[in-house]
Every structure is written in C-alpha cells, then in structure tokens.
Amino acid sequence: MAAEMKKSPSPETDSALIVVDVENDFLPGGALGVRAGDQVIAPMNRAIDVFLKEKLPVLYSRDWHPRDHSSFQQNGGPWPPHCVQDTEGARFSSDLSISKNPLVFSKGTNAAQEEYSAFHARDTAGNTVSEVLERLGVRHVFIGGLATDYCVLNTALDLLKAGYRVTVLTDACRAVNVAPHDGEKALEKMIAAGAMMMTTQDLGG
Ligand SMILES: [Zn+2]
To answer: Is 83 a known active-site residue?
Structure first.
C-alpha cells in the first residue's frame, strides 16, 4: 500500500480518552472473560499514547464491586462474580499502558446497584467522571474498552445525553455478545444517538 499523504485527524485540545474496564476479569481466562477481549489492549495503548503525547486527559474506569454485589448470580444477578474490589481480577491488565498518576474511576461500588456507565464513576476523592470532564473543559470524548454492549455503550449514551461529542474507537472495543449480534446492535445504538466511529489506526498523533 502506498504511503498515505493525507494527515490523520488528531484529537483536538478539548478531547479526552476514556479507557473502559480493561480489567483481568474481562479478559480471556477471567471470571467474565470477553471473547478476544485482550485484542483491545494494543489499539487502546496506541490511543493512550496519542493522548498522553498531546497532553490530553486519559481516564480509566473500572468495575469495582463489593463481594455481595447484586449483579452476581448468587445474589440474583446475571453475571458470575467479577471485578471484586482489591482482587487480581479487578486489576487493570498488566499489558495496558497506565499513565503516571492515572485518573482512575470506580463504578458498581454500591452492592445494591448495577452501574454499567462510567459517567458517574468516582475517583478516590469522590469526583465523578462527569465532574472531572467538565472541570477539564472536555467537549469531545474518545472511548474504547470492554465491553461494547454494556459499559462502553452505556457510558457513550450518557456522554451523548450530556452533550459531549463522542467518538468510539471501534478496534479498541469488544462485545460480550450474550445474544449473537449485541455488539453490532450496540454500535448502531451509539451511532443513532450521535456517536462517531473510527479506529485507532486513523487517530493522528
Ligand atoms: Zn460488573
């Protein structure tokens, strides 16, 4: 293929990246492993690199459940126990690039509540993603991670509802696909709500 002459679009100065739930339990072999979930790591790292080089914010969300979380099957929920606080399964993949002093936001910390969206996930000081984005003057959020049909979907929809521009990094997402086409349907839902789609290959840096 000939060398491309056209410049790839770079994230603008009002952009931020949200890395959704790239935790061991969501990777193959984990308690709630997403098929090919590990394939998000290389593109996610590429995006993280671009954002950090541009000195743009990178936010990491994580499922961070108490042991008795209501989403677990033994408590009547749909999922096997996963991402229990302070366990190996809840840690970010050791292959994921983590920025210095990373902005980490935990969700699903209330046993009684499922929380797919990272929009109201909190850092250790109690600030939500929503508050931090606003404080940083972010208007455009790039998003990738796990899983397309749950946490990426719900985070993107909340961001769009709040008026952010949202670009989904499609090669940096994988779906659970409880039903066969859930991942594709999730992408369609996000597009219908106004999200843009691109791959990390097209992310300038
Ligand atoms: Zn969960």
So the answer is: no
